[in-house]
From TrEMBL:
It comes from Pieris macdunnoughi. This is Zinc finger HIT domain-containing protein 2. InterPro entries: ZNHIT2 (IPR039646). Residues 11-26 have a biased composition (Acidic residues). Residues 1-26 are annotated as: Disordered.
């Protein structure tokens, strides 16, 4: 909502011919009216608008696409430093700054403390299946991930986590996610989005550079651990129904009522599996 209000305010600031017959000078401007308003409360924001502003808000909403209103999210895994035979020492190196924006890699138990059994070769390919599902869902929600909905969607398209499926070939691991997306009742997608997902999976798996190729994969798994942990916590909390104002009645809030209930025992197992994957990667050279 704030994005649209900011857009309205910017348009109002554009130079116009002065209307001498207007009595708008007596009207308090929008920023002043919003000073003591809780900006997280859409109903309070709505009540502070004039009728003309409400009509303008509705008009902008009806005439715009999501991309016009909400800024397009840029994934954190797109940076790649190509190896050069000769490095230009005078060229600024902002790699550290870029990598600091990635999800923080979690500390997990040593792999030797989790198992004495040598992992099957398919473990790396199973991780690719997870990366594909992760990259698709995070992009699908434009980087604004609601934990319960995100976990529900990830389990819906990721067989490695949902049903402990094993994959022998990377291409099959990625295409399994593509097919699940197309078959899903929770997700609407197209071939262009799936092609982006395939490329994202490649970017995540290759990492920011040759010397640190596992960095993005570890960051993604760490982010997933957080998402699943937050979903587990949020699923235990029962939200109380609150009275709805004019805005909430006019623009119903997106909620999780359409989603199937999360199986918390499965969520806990997935967290353990993600930690297992991350611990395994710590034993790998690259």
């Amino acid at each position: 909502m704030m994005e649209i209000l900011n857009r309205m305010q910017n348009e109002d600031l554009e130079p116009e011919e002065e209307n001498l017959d207007s009595d708008d000078d007596n009207e308090i401007d929008l920023p002043t009216r919003l000073q003591n308003i809780n900006l997280d409360d859409a109903d309070s924001l709505w009540s502070a608008l004039t009728n003309d502003e409400r009509n303008e808000f509705q008009s902008l909403l009806n005439g715009s696409t999501v991309g016009d209103i909400v800024p397009h999210w840029e994934p954190w895994w797109t940076y790649r430093k190509e190896k050069k035979l000769v490095e230009d020492l005078q060229q600024p190196n902002n790699e550290e700054e870029i990598l600091n924006k990635c999800p923080i890699i979690k500390v997990v138990p040593k792999f030797s403390s989790l198992t004495n059994i040598k992992p099957a070769p398919s473990i790396r390919v199973n991780i690719i299946n997870v990366l594909s599902a992760y990259s698709f869902v995070v992009r699908y929600f434009n980087g604004e991930v609601e934990p319960v909905e995100a976990v529900t969607c990830i389990l819906n398209i990721c067989d490695s986590l949902n049903s402990n499926s094993n994959f022998d070939e990377p291409d099959l691991a990625v295409e399994a996610v593509s097919q699940k997306c197309l078959q899903s009742d929770l997700i609407e997608t197209d071939e262009e989005s799936l092609e982006i997902m395939r490329h994202d999976t490649f970017l995540l798996y290759q990492g920011p550079n040759e010397e640190n190729s596992l960095f993005y994969t570890k960051s993604a798994l760490s982010d997933l651990i957080d998402i699943f942990s937050n979903a587990k916590s949020k699923s235990k909390i029962k939200t109380e129904a609150r009275s709805k104002g004019d805005f909430s009645r006019k623009f119903p809030e997106h909620d999780n009522s359409h989603l199937p209930s999360l199986d918390l025992s499965k969520v806990k197992k997935c967290i353990k599996k993600l930690e297992f994957y991350l611990s395994f990667l710590n034993t790998c050279d690259k």
